[in-house]
Design goal:
The protein has a single domain (52-306), classed as 3-Layer(aba) Sandwich (Rossmann fold). It is 32% helix and 13% strand. The chain has ten helices and ten strands. The strands form two sheets. Strands 1-10-9-6-2-3-5 form a seven-stranded parallel beta sheet. The chain has a three-stranded antiparallel beta sheet with strand order 4-8-7. Helix 3 packs across helix 4 (95-108). The N and C termini lie far apart (40 Å). Bound molecules: 2-amino-2-deoxy-6-O-phosphono-alpha-D-glucopyranose.
Length: 314
C-alpha cells in the first residue's frame, strides 16, 4: 500500500479519509511476493520440477478418471498415521472426478480415512447449511459419500459477522494445516480460479472479493433467481493456491476454450488469474477436446501424452 505521497496528491495518503486503507492492510508485510513464491516452489515434493502438463482427453468422464487417479494417489501416498490434505473445488467441472472417487470408494474400497479437505472459496452471506453454500455443495457432491468426517471438511466461513476477519482466519487455518497435497481447480469463463476474478494479484492471499457480473450470471443457474447470487465471496488467493504441492485444473466444454488457452498459452497476467499455473513447479491441466479447441499447441500435448514414459506419472 502507498505509505507516502502519491503523484498529484498533497500530503500523506493515509490522512485522506477516502484513500486511507484499512488498518490491517497497513500492517501487512510490504509485499508477500517472495514469501509466497519461495513457499510455493519449496512445497513441491522432492525432485518435482516440471513444466505444466496439458492432458487432452475425449470427454468429461475421461477427464474425471485421470483427475480421480491423481487424487487417489495423493490419498494413498499419505501412508499410515499421516493426514493428507486435499483441496477441493466446486462447479460442474470436478463432478466427474468426484463421482469416480465415490465409485472407487464403494466398489474398490478406496479409503479416505484421515483425509482433511479444504475448500477454495465460499459465498458471503449464505448460511453454511444453505444448499448452495460451497460447504453444502462439497458435502453433497463428495465428502458425505466417503469415509471423511464432517469435522475434517474445511472452508471459509461465509456467514461470519465480519467476512474480512473470517478470510484472514481461513488463511491462517490453511497455513497451520500444512501443505495441500493436491489442489483441484475449475476455471471460470473469464479465467478465474477459486473466485479470483481478473485483476487479482498473482500473490494474493485469502480475502473478500466482489464477483463480476459475468460470474454472477454464470452461477445464477444454481439459484432461484439471478438476484439471489451473492455479490461477495471469500476466496483463497492466487498465492495461497500456489502453495499446494500439485495444482490440477480441469475443464470441459466449448465455453471454457478461450479461458483454457489464455491460462496455458497466454501471457502470465493478473488479467487471466489461471495463468498463475505457469509459475508452479507441478501443474496439470486436464481438459476435454471441446475445452482444448483454442490451444495452439494441442497436437504437441497429444503427442507428449501418447509418448509419456511409464515412470512419468501425472
Ligand atoms: C465457480 C467457482 C470456481 C469454478 C467455476 C467454474 O465460479 N468458484 O471454483 O471453477 O465456478 O465452474 P464450472 O465448472 O461449473 O464452470
Amino acid at each position: 500500500m502507498p505509505t507516502g505521497r502519491m503523484p498529484g496528491v498533497r500530503g500523506d495518503v493515509r490522512e485522506i479519509p477516502h484513500l486511507r486503507p484499512p488498518v490491517d492492510l497497513l500492517e501487512q508485510p510490504p509485499c508477500p511476493f517472495h514469501a509466497n513464491w519461495s513457499a510455493a516452489t519449496s512445497s513441491a515434493p522432492d525432485g518435482w520440477s516440471a513444466d505444466m502438463e496439458v492432458v487432452i482427453l475425449p470427454g468429461p468422464d475421461d477427464c474425471g478418471r485421470v483427475v480421480a487417479d491423481i487424487l487417489a494417489r495423493a490419498v494413498g501416498n499419505g501412508g499410515a498415521g499421516t493426514r493428507p490434505t486435499l483441496g477441493l473445488a466446486t462447479g460442474s467441472s470436478p463432478l466427474t472426478a468426484y463421482r469416480e472417487l465415490i465409485r472407487r470408494h464403494r466398489e474398490e474400497g478406496l479409503s479416505f480415512a484421515g483425509v482433511r479437505t479444504v475448500n477454495l472459496d465460499e459465498y458471503v452471506g449464505l448460511p453454511a447449511d444453505h444448499p448452495e453454500s460451497y460447504r453444502s455443495v462439497i458435502r453433497r457432491e463428495l465428502t458425505a459419500h466417503l469415509d471423511i468426517s464432517d469435522d475434517d471438511v474445511h472452508g471459509p466461513d461465509g456467514s461470519a459477522s465480519d467476512p474480512l476477519v473470517a478470510a484472514r482466519e481461513y488463511e491462517q487455518q490453511l497455513r497451520d494445516g500444512g501443505p495441500v497435497a493436491v489442489q483441484l481447480l475449475g476455471i471460470g469463463a473469464n479465467g478465474h480460479i477459486g473466485f479470483n476474478e481478473p485483476g487479482s494479484s498473482l500473490t494474493s492471499l485469502t480475502r473478500v472479493k466482489t464477483l463480476t457480473e459475468q460470474t454472477r450470471r454464470d452461477n445464477a443457474r444454481f439459484f432461484d433467481s439471478p438476484d439471489d447470487v451473492p455479490r461477495h465471496v471469500i476466496t483463497q488467493g492466487l498465492g495461497t493456491i500456489s502453495r499446494a504441492q500439485h495444482l490440477v485444473l480441469t475443464a470441459s466444454g466449448a465455453g471454457k476454450a478461450a479461458a483454457v488457452a489464455a491460462a496455458v498459452e497466454g501471457p502470465l497476467t493478473a488479467s487471466c488469474p489461471a495463468s498463475v499455473l505457469q509459475l508452479h513447479p507441478h501443474a496439470t491441466v486436464v481438459e476435454d477436446e471441446a475445452a482444448a479447441a483454442a490451444l495452439e499447441r494441442a497436437d504437441y500435448y497429444r503427442y507428449t501424452l501418447e509418448h509419456k514414459l511409464p515412470h512419468q506419472p501425472f
